[in-house]
Every structure is written in structure tokens, then in C-alpha cells.
Amino acid sequence: MPASQQEPVRNAAAARGRPTEVRISIGLALGGGAALVALSALVTLSVLLRWLGEGGIPGDFETVEMLTALAAFAMLPLCQQTRGNVIVDTLSRNWPPRAVRLVDALWDVLYAAVALIIAWGAWQGGRDALANGTATMVLGLPVGWAMIAAAGLAVWLAIGAVVSALRLVFEGRS
């Protein structure tokens, strides 16, 4: 595999040669990163206002908890598809490359299964929260939509994990 495909995505020019699912995941990860930057600004401003005795921004903690979860789920697919997750190769260090790829593919499939279980739980929780009118305490934001969005992102993670497993098995790419 060319070295340029082994390196993490560093800019938009590097993304052009990537498969469509990776490009979609890059967009999601950029959105998640932008959300984290906005959340950092929100927290900084809220703390500064408290320090100045003006009181914080109402609902800042609610916004942080919802958007942080969504940002994390938005970034996980890219991490998976570019093989950015932590890999422990203590046992497989001296195995043949094909055996390592097959074991890695198995772990990718298991990761996809866990992501689908998370998606199912988030979907069910989101539906229940919307049906019950569950909202945040300060701002009154409906929490169900965030849970359903997290479910969708978890499904995308599962798809990415299956695609990366298939690549490991059939194309020999890691």
C-alpha cells in the first residue's frame, strides 16, 4: 500500500483519493471537531462570566454533555476507517501478516456488533425520550433527538468497521 494511504488524513487534498465512506467520515469528524471548539469557547466564556460575577451561561453544562457525546460519535468512524484506534499486538507481533489481518478483521466485526448494540439502545432511548417529552432541565431541549443522532452515528461506525474488516480480508489493507 502506498505510504500516503497509510497516514492519517491531514487535509482536504489528502482526502480526495480516499473512498467515499472515508470522505463522509472526514466531514463528520470535522463537524465533531468544530463542535468541540465551540464547546470550548462556550465553557471558557461561561467560566469567565462566573469569575466576573455575572453568572454563567444558562444551560452550559447541558449543551456540553449533549454535544460532547455527539462529537465523539462523529469522530469514531474516521478513527476506525483510518485504523487510528489503539492496537495491541503483543501476541500477534510475530504472526504472518495474513493471520494478523484476519484477527484484526474479526475484531472489526465485533466492534461493529457493539456499535450496533449501542445504536439500538440509543434509538430506543431516543424514541422513549421523545414520546415522554424528556428535556434538559435548564434550556428545555428535547434529549431524544440527540440520542437518535448518536444512534445514526453509531450505525455509521458499524458500517465503517465492517468495510474496514472486508478490506483487511479481501484487499489485505490495514
TrEMBL record:
What region holds the Tripartite ATP-independent periplasmic transporters DctQ component domain?
Answer: 40-169
Q: Where in the cell is it found?
A: Cell inner membrane; Cell membrane
Q: Give TM regions.
A: 26-49, 61-79, 100-123, 143-170
Oligomer status and interactors = The complex comprises the extracytoplasmic solute receptor protein and the two transmembrane proteins.
Major place of residence: membrane
Q: How does it sit in the membrane?
A: Multi-pass membrane protein
Named from the GO MF annotations, one term is: transmembrane transporter activity
- Record keywords: Cell inner membrane, Cell membrane, Membrane, Transmembrane, Transmembrane helix, Transport
Role, per record: Part of the tripartite ATP-independent periplasmic (TRAP) transport system.
What do the Gene Ontology cellular component annotations say? plasma membrane
Regions annotated as coiled coil: none
Q: Which family does it belong to?
A: Belongs to the TRAP transporter small permease family.
One short Pfam family name for this protein? Answer: DctQ
Q: Which InterPro entries match?
A: DctQ
Name of the protein in question: TRAP transporter small permease protein
Organism placement in taxonomy: Bacteria, Pseudomonadati, Pseudomonadota, Alphaproteobacteria, Hyphomicrobiales
